[in-house]
Structures are given as structure tokens and as C-alpha cells.
Amino acid sequence: MTQTYATLLVARDDGVLTLTLNRPDKLNAWTYRMGAELRQAIVAANADPDVTAIVVTGAGRAFCAGADIAEVFDAQSRAEVPYKAEANTSDWVALLRRSKPLVAALNGAAIGVGLTMVLPMDQLIASEDASLALRFVKLGLVPELASSHFVVSRCGLGAASNLILTGRTVNASEAQALRLVDQVVPADELLPAAHALARAMGENPLAAVLESKRLLSLNGTESDLELVMRREFAALERSYASAEHREAIDAFLAKRPPDFRKAREG
Prior knowledge:
The chain is an alpha/beta fold. Helices cover 45% and strands 16% of the residues. The protein has helices spanning 32-47, 69-77, 92-97, 113-116, 147-155, 157-166, 172-177, 190-202, 206-219, 225-240, 243-254, 260-265; strands spanning 8-13, 16-21, 53-58, 62-64, 102-106, 109-111, 123-127, 131-133, 169-171, 183-185.
């Protein structure tokens, strides 16, 4: 039976698990409970052999309009933080980077934590009516969730400085031009595009997908090319020894579709 959550909707289609932030009356504003439930749902998906990839989107007209002011900032100012033990954000980035493929489908406003929480995901797709902002400076705050790294990695220092130091809002077209998002599609094509992309990544051998994500995380900003190649070679050796690699070769020679799940479980 599928787990139920207070702030999320969960649906599965052909191996792709869709997690929908479900506080539409609050524009899906982030709370500690939402953070805890998102983490729980992703951990469960990674442990579920029937899930190959994950899509995260929002209910209603926004993806996530930032942190819930009353439940988050006001509680912090009074040192009254609910769900803090469950929703400790320190390992959020590590969880996403070691997870099965993750696609963020941004269906409207993605503001503050509504943007930083998805930057470590593998692909960001925005609807044409999406708006994005890193508004922390306007609240006397600084970016979190390693976003000062990921925005520079995606956009470059100049664009990252512009976005973070002004806190301005950009539309989907400018976000794509800045490489803040990877793709922009009409609103009615957002979820189909996200599902297709998630499925295209998730149908590949899981061990190789996870090794590749690990290499991207370690080597993306590594200047020591000898170290980069040593890491790649070590991962390649592990890949050569995997059951999924053997299945890929056997299927190619036999001219049949590979069955990577059977190879993993066998």
C-alpha cells in the first residue's frame, strides 16, 4: 500500500513516481513537515525496486512559493521549530545526489527554498508560466542547500551574483537562457515531458546511473584531471563487474531488450 502524507500526493506510472507538493491554498509553501515527508518519500522510492525515477511537482498554480513565513521563520525566531529532528536539511543534497534519477517539474512560482531544494536534482523543467527567484537577500538571509554552489555551476559566477544579490524574479524564458533550468515547455506538456525524461534516465542500469551521478558530483568542479580519471576508472571497474553490464552485453548479442531489474535481483 502506498504511503500517505499530509503535504504530498504520491502517484506511480510505469516506474516513475510522482511526488506532488500538496498545499495549493498556500502556494505549496515549504514547512518542516513537508521537508520531512519529501525526504521520507524519496528514501522509500530509492528502496522500492518498482520505482525507476522520481518526478517532483506542485499542486495548483505554484510549485513552491518559498518557506511558510508563519510556520518557518516565525517559529525560528522564537526557537520553536516543529519537525526539526525529522527534517534536518543537512543531508538533503547528499540524498538527492545519491538518489535514483530526479526531475523537478516547476509548474509556476519556485521561490526561495522552492528553488534551492530542487537545484541538486538531475533535471529541472519549467512550464512557460513559471517564475523563479532566490529572494533570500531581501529577507536579510543568504542562500542555503548548497545553492551558492549549484547556481554558479549552472549559470556561472556573473549570473549567479546577479540572481542572488538582487533577489529578483525571472520568468521561465530568462531562467532557461541563464541555464538555471534545463528545459521550458507549455504548461499542459510539463508533466508528460518530465515523465518522459525521468523514464529515459530511469530505464538505464541503476548501478551505472548511481555511479554516474556520483562522478558528476565529485568531478564537476574538480581541477585535478588525474584524480578525475582515477575515480572514473575505479567506477568503470565496478561497472564491468556488475550484473547489469553483463545483461546489457548478453541482450545486445541476443538482439533482445535487456531486463536490468531481473539482472539486479538474480
